[in-house]
């Protein structure tokens, strides 16, 4: 069993709720709540089981927050994701994610002691450290002060040659603010040069035109950045970055500045990325770094002709995609999450079965358990991974392994061996990401069928169910204008949305084992994913630890 230190693992008995009920915990991945229209695949799909649960509102069905500060992300504009969602679901508390984590790592100096920094520092003796990211104090994708601290700390920890490849903002900050940001960084680099560090700006461009595309919408954006940053080639060449931005702003705003490179007196680029160099992408937000990360890391890459694929040591500020494990090296590790709900329940004798298919198996186990691998107690836990389809896009097999997961969960419930049966059903998210609306409708129907299978088993054993989700996706499949109307491109084609959303997600409770009088509280209106852990503990007959987010349920005396 895990090392427990001085933690008191014994949970208090709940004064009104009994123990001994089998509880099914179902997480529908990418299943948010949004107004009904033709692009809400959950609404369009035949989902009678989930529809019936919705009829239990407000006592047995409600919405909870699954994005932004509710899951530890910096702002309410930050959409949730599966990793932080399952962290919150399992931990019962909100842990710093994204920018907050980076701030803590920089303030403590731990960022320079971690495995990621040690990895890139192996290139410092003979190679160049390249820093690529958004130059902005907007705090949405990156922050100027974090870059400044990274520059200072890297030079103090052995970096002798540094090149900055910046992307101008104008989207999260005012247009034109780029000039001041570049002047600030130029001043910092000049100070480093006075200390003997060869530190310069190497390239630049606007965020919407260079590098920072997302969801594989336009690989040409990434290619323009690659050509400037890696190959040292761009249509515009300057000897001074401030001059470059001022001049190019005559033809474009900050968001759309064309790519440029800084050259020396011989018209040679001062900072192409070459064999032996180190690269750090310093954005903390993931969505607009994933495509570049793939180009920098993947040997087998066919989205554009890279011309050269330098042998580098690359690390992200954070790991941008937990499912893809991309990048494989990163400067700031995920949060250190202790005392997760599953660990408490295992210590209190709860037997757990957890199951999903490969693409989400880690979420219902590793991320649920606080970024921890393995069992807390193998005698009380069983984890089952069903292999996902490989070699095809998920929209070609949109049912994925939903029914197989439902069958495994059903069998686990009917075996009477487990107190908790926990699953993740991946369809809404994985098929939603493909942008195939018809396939996503099929995916949602399959997910609903799997839920029915599980709820039917709970009915047979007199158990309790908790059905929720980790973030939105399938409930909105189109990009929209400020009025909420679908957007079309210049050719009249609908602009498909393949990303997660910031919509709330449902949570439903029920089953024959649910004690009379149990209903959702109305005094936790801003409840989020982190409130689910205490709720589940209550349904197991325990009171959650005092520092957990409040339970969503109450027991009303009839």
TrEMBL record:
Complexes and interactors: Monomer.
Annotated binding of Mn(2+) 2, by residue: 29, 82, 470-471
Domain BPG-independent PGAM N-terminal: 102-321
Active site, UniProt feature: 82
Pathway entry: Carbohydrate degradation; glycolysis; pyruvate from D-glyceraldehyde 3-phosphate: step 3/5
Keyword Cytoplasm tagged: yes
Residues given in the record as Mn(2+) 1 binding sites: 429, 433, 500
Name by which UniProt lists this protein: phosphoglycerate mutase (2,3-diphosphoglycerate-independent)
GO BP: glucose catabolic process; glycolytic process; response to blue light; response to carbon dioxide; stomatal movement
SUPFAM superfamilies tied to this protein: 2,3-Bisphosphoglycerate-independent phosphoglycerate mutase, substrate-binding domain, Alkaline phosphatase-like
GO cellular component: cytoplasm
E.C. number(s) listed in UniProt: 5.4.2.12
An example Gene Ontology molecular-function term: phosphoglycerate mutase activity
